[in-house]
Amino acid sequence: MSLRAINAYQKDSLKQRIATADPHQLTLMLMQGALDRLSFAKGAHDRNDVTARAQFISKATAIFINLRDTLDTKAGGEFADNLHDLYDYMIDKLITVNQENTISQLDEVIQLFYPIKEAWQQIPEQDKQLAYAQRQA
């Protein structure tokens, strides 16, 4: 199978997963995408590929901006406000990575974000359905 065919299959598979995903799954996909981009950025940094590192950090930053901007601060209250501030902090750190060519701040963002993604992943199905029903009402 050619690389082009594999890439086309993966793209179609992703489109299908997005089309059938509920809001919780979409958020989880974004979170995993951010972590993937941060890992790719670390690999690019190790290879001294500044252009690729900047591109991956830019994509991860865009995901964090999206996650931050879609927080429901009315429903989430103080927790959502704190998470908003944490996303701002991580975005600032990623900008600094590109400006200063330092990997330690990239590691800090990964260490801060991974538990958030893991906690999101552990939300019980019953709670997801309840939250989704409340949003629909």
What can you tell me about this protein's structure?
This protein is an all-alpha fold and 137 residues long. It has one domain (23-121): Four Helix Bundle (Hemerythrin (Met), subunit A), CATH 1.20.120.340. It has 6 helices and no strands. The chain has helices spanning 3-20, 23-46, 50-69, 73-100, 104-121, 125-136. The longest helix has 28 residues, at 73-100. The radius of gyration is 17 Å and the shape is elongated. The N and C termini lie far apart (48 Å). The relative contact order is 0.12. The model has no long low-confidence stretch (mean pLDDT 85).
Uncertain runs: none
* CATH fold-level assignment: Four Helix Bundle (Hemerythrin (Met), subunit A)
Q: Would you identify the CATH architecture?
A: Up-down Bundle
Estimated share of beta-strand residues: under 5%
Number of strands: 0
Mean pLDDT: 85
Write the CATH homologous superfamily: Flagellar protein FliS
Helix coverage percent: over 70%
Task: Report the C-alpha radius of gyration, rounded.
Answer: 17 Å
Write the layout of secondary structure elements.
Elements: H1 3-20, H2 23-46, H3 50-69, H4 73-100, H5 104-121, H6 125-136
Helix pairs in contact: 2-3, 2-5, 3-4, 4-5
Tag the structure with descriptive keywords.
137 residues, Four Helix Bundle (Hemerythrin (Met), subunit A), 6 helices, 88% helix
Quick structural gist:
This protein is mostly helical and 137 residues long. The protein has a single domain, classed as Up-down Bundle (Four Helix Bundle (Hemerythrin (Met), subunit A)).
